Amino acid sequence: MLGALALAPVAAAIPAYGQKPFIYALKPERIADQIWVVRGDDAPIAMANGGAIANIGIIGTAEGAVLFDSGPSLRYGDALQSLATELTGKQVVRVYVSHLHPDHGFGLGAFPASVTTALPETIREIERDSPGFSDGMYRLLGDWMRGTEVKTPAQPLTPGVEVIGGRRLRTIALSGHSGADLCVVDDTSGVLFPGDLVFHNRAPATPEADFSKWRASLDALIGLSPVITVPGHGPVDSTGTAAIRQTRDWLEWLETSIGDAILRGLDMVEAGNMPIPDRFAGMAAARYELQRSISHFYPRMEAALLPRIDVSESATQ
Questions:
Q1: What's the rounded Cα separation, in Å, for the pair 314 and 229?
Q2: In this predicted structure, what is the pLDDT of residue 309?
Q3: Residue 198: exposure state from Cβ atoms within 10 A (0-12, 13-18, ≥19)
Q4: Which architecture does CATH list for 15-243?
Q5: Three-class SS of residue 3?
Q6: Threshold 0.70, pTM exceeds
Q7: Helical H runs in 89-169?
Q8: pLDDT digit string, tens, across residues 199-208
């Protein structure tokens, strides 16, 4: 009995994401000619998914494979490199990192520094925040992260048009989900990779969010008229704009609802348990992300909407 009890925590920690412990079983979904998506789990980062919650794009070109994001760990990056080479028959020649969050960029160690690129502001944000992110990822994921070291994208990206192996890729700098959000459009297919500016049937995460900038970025994405949109999280949107509009709808509701809860005098716990509209009923992690957003925004919005009387009076005297 004592032996069984001692082993029980270890058995419970064995991950379920791959067929073997700490193996990422990546399953590509072909969405256009020479374009694949590896879907992430529509859940928070956890041992059960190895942190593989972000969607990753693979684009085949005559020169080599192009990746949009690299996943959460060195193990994932190694598996992704093998998969991209298998699908395209060529080595990886470019890795775009969409933004600073570790589920999108901690797999960079699997690739030569010379092929990695991101917006300059993203590089600065990664340099600023990566030690804390790394500590958190190791605490959450344990052995999934073995060997993972933070790698900063080596090539600062100037937005514009980049032709790789005959494939015309447009890189666009936006912001709102983070301080710098890179989007890539494949002009041949009309496929848009907007990173975490867009979530689909999965509630948006908001730790670095700026609501007004995020909405402006979503409006700009709608103006691109994409044929297919690959959200940062959630299923691929074959309509092109439904996921963008859904994300914008959630953000509008979220900001308005938080402000209303503050003015009604609700505390953070009460606000985190507010009803979620029926139109978001099928959205994964909705309650979880609502409560996270409450923790991110409540204090600052409360201070703005309900300024302290004593501070206001002293300022005017």
A1: 52
A2: 81
A3: buried
A4: 4-Layer Sandwich (3.60)
A5: helix
A6: yes
A7: 102-105, 120-141
A8: 999 999 999 9
